[in-house]
Specification:
The protein is α+β, with helices and mostly antiparallel strands. 40% of the residues lie in helices and 20% in strands. The strands form 5 sheets. The protein has a 9-stranded mixed β-sheet, covered by helices on one side. A 7-stranded mixed β-sheet has the order 1-4-6-5-7-9-8, sandwiched between helices.
């Protein structure tokens, strides 16, 4: 016969499971269709039509499709009655990437604008195979459709609204740099709304860019009436530590202009690949971007954008109940309150004889065993999985096609371990005594956050609710109210559980150990509930069963198929100095396609000179190749003179074929100054000797000017690359099988000519 306690326990378990599900599903729109959307409202269907037009094929800087996408954007803006213009010019970023971006700009005149609101996204895709539907045709489409809906209201805004569809973002934020530093409109901008992507689905996360306090921006964000606000100060604290920047970073750093990023990161395996298609872009995700733009566009078009700077910072986070914020000045008072309440709770528990020293100390045992076992075994299992499935290493950005299954697997595994640990080592200990150990760890973590990662200080909220639950549990003594403690556990679920997914998706499966760590800590925060469960062994067995099921699901999705393609690479390099050529690949595992040219894995590449790539990847294998008659670049020394005790050299490199990129390295000669296409180089003596990486548009030449000591013997090592290996008539490369795709993040499917220039 089922007892009331057992029924309540089962109901509690179901409620917590539902809360976990709701914490993920409530953060974004879930409607899959839309009908009869008024012309004054944002339509995802209309936005998707723009994505379909722009994301037909890769449209990186210099490609034919790149110009076609730009012309499409201009035509659509003209349909809205706007007068778009194109800004172009060379820009050189801090790492040496130079290109000639072509920004598309338009402006809606306000009534009496002191500062303008700027809507920002970029229209170039990543070279050379990324289709760019999510990154960032989705952002461009959001702005075009949002602007159409806004103009359909027939109301003139108070502020000017500037539309900037930037170029060259993927190369080094070059279009944003061109606008911020060289366009006269830049000085008019008061706030930026930037729409980005680093995947093809999931909720769009708000990330701030500000040199000052965030208080007025966060308060405005709350007042704008957003339906699905997602963002937290911890995510931005981590974002600032990472090397990932957006166009908005240039506005903040070079123009002291603040703003909001809105970016989605789920389905990270599509990022910068040929799978970044409109078919893979989530309808609800694009809808979510629209739910940001429309209320914020309406709100900030009416606000005084000269009054949004603040010295005060706010902690902020979202939950299914809304978007919450409080001042940084509350961090330490809340921490002190928590510590005082914790001490008072222990005193009260001893006084009520609900706590004992022996019980508290014994309560540390199952928690520590569960924590160390789940984290340690996860690290070991992940090492084993990577050994069992070496193909995972081919996914350079670290999130496999079955990555979500692995997150679930290790979450289930951690829950199985922690439930079993409490069954084995905690079944004779009361829930009150068991709750002290995890609560102590949470207070330590809250203190560390307050001192070292203040953006994470909102974790104090669930800690406070745990203290409240524990107080009631002590007060009730023999009449525990399981369902009440379950309801009091919801803040911990709503606030903390989403990070179990967010961290490994955002940072890669290399940090998969964060899953059991968070699961165990959250379990500890819910100890006033779980400590009342009478059958933890059964629950543990359930989660172990789910772990096994998840493993077989992950295994079934571990291979490469037409839906989960293997990334591979092939590059032809002709060394014109030696008149020798070779095939090269970045792949760790050769497949049937690459083995057409690189026969086995004994031909390990020893090349140290490699064109720049996102992860500094080098060639893995190489094989001799036939020499092809590839047109050599025309190299002209325009000047080589000595004056003012320095040797001044100007050289012009003009492609004699259609090329996409030129990379220039130097020998050991120290340059005293250098210019690239008229722009000053600020790193002429960088450690790895790369002078510049030039992304070519319109086959424009590369012009270099530099000065050295009079007795120096400078050399330039030029790599001239075209992305036409698959189409070039000098070669007959077979098409990839349908279960393969070009490897992203590297120079791929390329013909490279290497030439040393001596003076």
């Amino acid at each position: 016969m089922t007892t009331p306690r057992a029924r309540y326990t089962f109901l509690s378990f179901i409620l917590i499971a539902c809360a976990v599900y709701y914490s993920f599903k409530s953060v974004m729109p879930q409607s899959l269709t839309e009908e009869n959307v008024p012309k004054e409202e944002f339509s995802t269907v209309r936005a998707f039509a723009h994505v379909n037009e722009m994301a037909k094929e890769p449209h990186y800087v210099g490609s034919k499709a790149h110009a076609e996408v730009r012309n499409y954007i201009i035509a659509e803006l003209k349909k809205l009655g706007l007068n778009p213009t194109v800004q172009e010019g060379f820009t050189l970023d801090a790492s040496g990437n130079i290109s000639k971006p072509k920004n598309v700009l338009a402006r809606i005149k306000g009534k009496n604008s002191a500062k303008a609101l700027l809507l920002l996204s970029h229209y170039d895709s990543d070279p050379h195979s990324a289709v760019g539907a999510s990154d960032a045709a989705s952002g461009v489409a959001t702005i075009i459709e949002g602007t159409r809906a806004f103009l359909a209201k027939g109301e003139q805004p108070e502020n000017d609204i500037i539309l900037l569809l930037s170029d060259g973002e993927e190369l080094g934020l070059n279009g944003a740099d061109l606008f911020v530093n060289k366009h006269p409109w830049a000085k008019d901008v008061g706030l930026v709304l930037n729409f980005e992507a680093r995947g093809s689905g999931g909720p769009s996360i708000m990330l701030l860019e500000t040199n000052n306090g965030n208080a007025k921006l966060i308060k405005a964000f709350q007042e704008a009436g957003l339906r699905y606000p997602v963002g937290n100060s911890l995510a931005y604290s981590i974002y600032k530590m990472l090397p990932n920047d957006t166009d908005l970073t240039v506005f903040r750093e070079d123009g002291n202009i603040q703003g909001f990023n809105f970016a989605f990161i789920d389905d990270h395996y599509d990022y910068h690949t040929e799978n970044d298609t409109s078919e893979n872009l989530d309808f609800n995700t694009l809808t979510h971007q629209g739910t940001y733009l429309m209320p914020l566009l309406d709100y900030f078009s009416k606000q005084d954008l000269t009054q949004i700077t603040s010295d005060e910072d706010l902690i902020y986070f979202n939950s299914p109940l809304g978007f919450h914020a409080y001042p940084f000045s509350w961090i330490f008072p809340i921490l002190i309150i928590i510590i005082v309440l914790f001490i008072g709770l222990i005193w009260y528990g001893f006084r009520q004889r609900m706590l004992s020293t022996k019980g508290i100390l014994k309560g540390f045992l199952p928690f520590l065993i569960g924590l160390t076992a789940s984290c340690g075994l996860t690290i070991l299992l992940w090492i084993i999985f990577k050994w069992l499935y070496p193909q995972y290493a081919e996914i350079q950005h670290g999130f496999t096609y079955n990555g979500y299954v692995y997150i679930s697997l290790f979450a289930f595994f951690a829950l199985g371990i922690i439930f079993y640990s409490y069954h084995k080592f905690g079944k004779k200990i009361t829930a009150v005594n068991l709750s002290i150990a995890p609560l102590f760890f949470w207070i330590v973590i809250t203190a560390l956050a307050a001192f070292y990662l203040d953006g994470a200080s909102f974790i104090a909220i669930p800690v406070l609710f745990t203290i409240i639950s524990l107080f009631i549990l002590i007060k009730q003594k023999d009449e525990p109210m399981t369902l009440l403690y379950t309801v009091l556990a919801f803040p911990a679920v709503f606030i903390l559980v989403p990070f179990i997914k967010l961290f490994p998706v955002g940072l890669g499966l290399k940090i998969i150990v964060v899953v059991p760590l968070l699961v165990t800590l959250i379990y500890g925060a819910l100890m006033p509930v779980f400590g009342l469960y009478k059958r933890p062994k059964w629950t543990a067995n359930l989660f172990f069963l789910l772990t096994i099921i998840a493993f077989f699901v992950a295994h079934s999705r571990s291979d490469f198929t037409e839906e989960r393609q293997k990334p591979n690479s092939l590059v032809y390099i002709l060394d014109s100095d030696t008149n020798k050529a070779n095939w090269n690949t970045y792949d760790g595992i050769l497949d049937d396609w690459t083995k057409n040219y690189i026969k086995d894995e004994t031909n390990v590449s020893k090349s140290k000179d490699v064109m720049d790539s996102k992860y500094k990847s080098g060639f893995t294998y190489t094989q001799d190749a036939p020499v092809k008659q590839i047109p050599m670049p025309l190299i002209e020394t325009l000047k080589d003179t000595t004056y003012n005790n320095l040797r001044h050299i100007d050289v012009k490199i003009t492609p004699q074929r259609t090329v996409n990129r030129m990379e220039v390295f130097t020998n050991d000669t120290k340059f005293t100054a250098a210019k690239v296409n008229g722009l000053d180089v600020k790193y002429p003596n960088n450690d790895w000797k790369r002078l510049t990486s030039y992304y070519v548009s319109d086959n424009d030449p590369l012009e270099l000017s530099f000065t050295v000591q009079p007795n120096a013997t400078p050399e330039l090592i030029l790599y001239e690359a075209s992305f036409d290996l698959m189409e070039n008539p000098l070669f007959s490369i077979p098409a990839r099988a349908k279960n393969m795709m070009p490897r992203p993040f590297v120079l791929n499917d390329a013909i490279i000519v290497k030439k040393t220039i001596r003076f």
